[in-house]
Design goal:
mainly alpha
Length: 50
């Protein structure tokens, strides 16, 4: 989520949401919130024992 290409792709799609939803939060605020949540998850390598 820290890669610029991921950010740019998400922002591009954000514009389509504004046509469908009345109130859309600021993109950067929403992206930061989701990025923090995503990075806080307890990720493990595939196949790692629980």
């Amino acid at each position: 989520m820290r890669e610029k290409k991921v950010y740019d792709a998400a922002k591009k799609e954000w514009e389509t949401i504004t046509a469908e939803v009345d109130e859309v939060p600021d993109f950067d605020d929403a992206y930061t919130l989701v990025q923090r949540f995503y990075e806080s998850l307890p990720w493990r390598p595939i196949g790692a024992k629980i």
